[in-house]
Each structure stands twice: as structure tokens, then as C-alpha cells.
Amino acid sequence: MSQKEIDFIPHTPAVLKQIFERRGIAPNKRFGQNFLIDQNILVSIPDIATLKEDDVIMEIGTGTGGLTRLLASRSRHVFTIEVDKKLFELSSDILKLYKNITLINADILKTKHELNPDILSLIHNWIREHSQAQIKVVSNLPYNISTPVIINLLEGDLPISFMVLMLQKEITERMKAIPGTREYGILSVITQLFSEVEVVKTLSPDVFWPRPAVHSALVKVVIHKEKYAGRVTDYPFFGKIIYAIFTSRRKTLMNSLEKLNLPIVSREHLKVIMKEMQLDERIRGESLSVAQLIHLSEAIGKLKNPPDEISNRIKLGKISDVFDQHFIE
Predict the structure, then answer these.
(1) Side by side, which strands form the sheet with 135-140?
(2) DSSP secondary structure, 116-130, as one string
(3) Within this chain, do residues 254 and 204 fall inside the same structural domain, yes or no?
(4) Are 175 and 235 members of one domain?
(5) Cβ(104)–Cβ(116) below 8 Å
(6) Which of 73, 168, 251, 323 has the smallest count of CB within 10 Å of its CB?
(7) Based on the domain organization, do 131 and 54 belong to the same domain?
(8) Rounded to whole angstroms, how far apart are CA atoms 284 and 251?
(9) Whole domain around residue 140: which residue ranges?
(10) How far is residue 280 from each of residues 76, 134, 231, measured CA to CA in Å?
């Protein structure tokens, strides 16, 4: 592919189809491939991400490199990850003159519960060697992996300060959902535990090719891990609490908590805790705010653990470790 062709590439269906036919590429539903073809939205994304020349970016889903080029022109370095071998080869060709892009042909997820450790190690090493304090995530995130990727990014140890994501509208509604609504669930709790979310723009299916069956949205996610960190002394146990609650939505909070099967925490213990929190015994767990869920987890945790085990201790395991695969999707 000539440099003239590379410089041209507007992301229109006609041009993409032509390039794909030449390369023997077809959009892969298994990888959730829907390419952004609205140039105005595309060029607005670096501005929404408030990119600066010293920023380091992680992009998940390189695609044809259209967004990647814009990110690279406005930042210090871009790590871009593409699982599709043919798209990786195409984007490598398109991006070959950029010296500040690291292209990675790999799956961002090792499992539904874990990000690819090789990718994390590569980025961590670069950050350490180049004295980079924080990174940003900017991505047209493949919809079929969006929930586990978001959860793992928020729970992980990459120094992420900010994310701009294109997501299925339903996912953004779940991220911002309030207690007691149908959309409020595990993704809502984890997102709100670690960050603040703002929906920037709703996107019609017409701005993508192939055209998806759903609406999408652009969101800004500002990471504030310190917001609740000091208040959660046993993070994996907090995960078990919310898992028990949100996998039994029609049950009362009391009945949901009994699924934990904690032998030293009786129903009477739970009644005392709920009374102290001024909660009706008939309340359902999905009505509790993030702050209330933390309070509940800490109160039960003090009953199941000796005081010397929980004092001044933060166990930052991963909530996603307690999810079954079906529930995290």
C-alpha cells in the first residue's frame, strides 16, 4: 500500500470494502467488528480525551488504524491491540511510518476474568523505563468484550487516569445506573466504586459499518480509585456480597446474604446490621447504593474475621474472580 493511499483512507464503507476485498478481509462478528465511518466523530475523540503531547495511550481494537493515527499525532506513545491477524497486518502497513506506536497482535483478555498479562507487562515496563506516571485508554471497544474489559481495567494496577470509550448504549446505561433500577448491577457498582462516568454523545447505528443493531455512546470515565479504597478492607469479600445480591434480584437482602453460607454470621447478626443501617428487613439488595454496600460488607466482615486480621488492611483482589462467566458477559 502506497503512502498516498495510506494518507487518503477516509473511513467510508466504499473505501473500507475496497481495501478489505483487496486484503481478503471480512468484518468478523465474533470479534464485534463495527468500524466508525463518521469522520466528524472520529476527529472529535482526541479532543474529548483532552490529549496532550506527553500522554501515553492504550487503544483496544486497532481496526484499520484510523483512530490510532489521530491518537499518535497528539500523544507521546500509543499501545494499540488488535486480535484479528488480517486487520493487524493491514493496520501495521498503514501505521508503519509512526515511530510512537506499538502494535500488538493479541487478545486483550486472557480469560473473562483477567487481562492479558503479556500486554500488561509490556506497558508496565515501558512506563517504568520512560518515567510515565499515568496512561489513558481511548478505544472503540468491541462490544462483545466491553463489560469484562472495563471491569478488569478498573480493578487492575495499570495507572489509568482517564478513559474515552465507544460502547453499546445499554452498557453505558448500566455504568451510570442508580440503585433500584433494572440497569443497576455489578458493572454499575464497580464503575461507580472506582470512577465517574459522563455520556458525551449518543451514536446512531448509521455511523458504523457494518451497521450494528443497537445504538452506541461515547463516554468519558474519570478514574478515582482513592474514592473508596480506604473504606474497603476486604475487596474479594465485597465482591462476594455484590455477587450474592445481584444474582438473586427478586430475593430480599436478607435471603441474598444467606447465600454466602458464613457459619459464624447468623440471620440474627444480619438483622442487627440492617437495623443499624436503618434498612427494612424486606429491602432488596439492588436498592443499596455503593456506599451502603461498602458499609454492609465491612459490618459483616468484622463478624467473620478477628479484629486483628482486618485492622489497617486492604485486600485488593479482583471482584471479577468471583463471577461466573455467564454473569460477567
Answers:
(1) 101-105, 77-82, 56-60, 135-140, 160-168, 216-223, 195-203
(2) -HHHHHHHHHHHHHT
(3) no
(4) no
(5) no
(6) 73
(7) yes
(8) 6
(9) 3-227
(10) 53, 43, 24
Total of domains in the chain: 2
Same domain, 188 and 320: no
Encode pLDDT of 221-260 as tens digits: 999 988 776 789 999 999 999 999 999 988 999 999 988 8
- Please say which residue of 212, 227, 242 terminates a domain: 227
| CA–CA distance, 319 with 285 (Å, rounded to integer) | 17
What is the spatial distance between Cα 115 and Cα 152, in angstroms, rounded to a whole number? 7
Residue 63 and residue 140 in contact, taking contact as beta carbons nearer than 8 Å:
yes
Cβ neighbours around 297 below 10 Å, total: 21
Q: Are strands 77-82 and 56-60 parallel, antiparallel or unpaired?
A: parallel
Nearest alpha-carbon partner for 257 in 228, 296, 295, 309: 296
Are 316 and 286 in contact, with CB atoms under 8 Å apart? no
Joined grid coordinates for residue 134 = 499515568
